[in-house]
């Protein structure tokens, strides 16, 4: 589901004005591999990302997004990073900015597949041989790979 219904309802009221939303990044590990998806809108490889639904627990959102976007079941190990994205302007003019919670997850089952249309590919990549991606996504993955005992905060 590309845009949650609650966001569409808000957009009916506020148009393209900036929205402050909460999101998750799910960095799923299978041994020394990480699950990545190729976004259908930009073609970029990223970890699974998504918007937290109203009232939804963030860790539950991370698990749900992995299932929806990649058809993979995973369990949350821990929160590894908290940050704020740069403002985003979508092709239709909608503007948003996200509080992003990065979770490290452990693979449980499934074969990666771009399940919901948001992505064109889903695949495992060795941690030391990832495809090119933005600095922001690289930092999210780095935090999950480092797996420090405390979550890091972007300042």
SS field, number of helical segments: 3
Helix/strand/pairing category: alpha+beta
Number of strands: 9
Strand content: 35-45%
Helix content: 10-25%
What distance lies between the first and last C-alpha atoms, to the nearest angstrom? 32 Å
What is the average per-residue confidence, as pLDDT, rounded to a whole number? 95
Q: Give the helices and strands as they follow along the chain.
A: HEEEEHEEEEHE
List low-pLDDT spans: none
Overall form: globular
Question: What can you see in these coordinates?
Answer:
Helix content is about 25%, strand content about 40%. By secondary structure, the chain is α+β, with helices and mostly antiparallel strands. Strands 1, 2, 3, 4, 5, 6, 7, 8 and 9 form a nine-stranded mixed β-sheet that branches. The model has no long low-confidence stretch (mean pLDDT about 95).
Write the layout of secondary structure elements.
Elements: H1 5-14, E1 19-30, E2 33-39, E3 45-46, E4 48-51, H2 58-70, E5 73-84, E6 88-89, E7 95-109, E8 119-126, H3 135-146, E9 152-153
Parallel strand pairs: 1-7, 5-9
Antiparallel strand pairs: 1-2, 1-4, 2-3, 2-8, 5-7, 6-7
Salient structural properties:
3 helices, 9 strands, 155 residues, alpha+beta
Q: Gist?
A:
Helix content is 23%, strand content 41%.
């Amino acid at each position: 589901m590309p845009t949650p219904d609650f966001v569409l309802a808000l957009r009916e009221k506020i148009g393209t004005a900036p929205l402050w939303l909460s999101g998750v990044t799910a960095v799923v590990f299978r041994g020394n591999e990480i699950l990545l998806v190729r976004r259908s809108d930009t073609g970029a490889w990223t970890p699974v990302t998504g918007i937290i639904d109203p009232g939804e627990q963030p860790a539950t959102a991370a698990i749900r997004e992995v299932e929806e976007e990649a058809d993979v079941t995973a369990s949350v190990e821990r929160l590894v990073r908290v940050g704020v994205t740069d403002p985003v302007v979508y092709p239709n003019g909608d503007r948003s900015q996200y509080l992003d919670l990065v979770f490290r997850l452990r693979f449980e089952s499934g074969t990666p597949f771009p399940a919901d249309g948001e992505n064109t590919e889903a695949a495992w990549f060795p941690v030391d041989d990832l495809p090119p991606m933005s600095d922001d996504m690289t930092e999210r993955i780095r935090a999950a790979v480092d797996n420090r005992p405390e979550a890091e905060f972007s300042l």
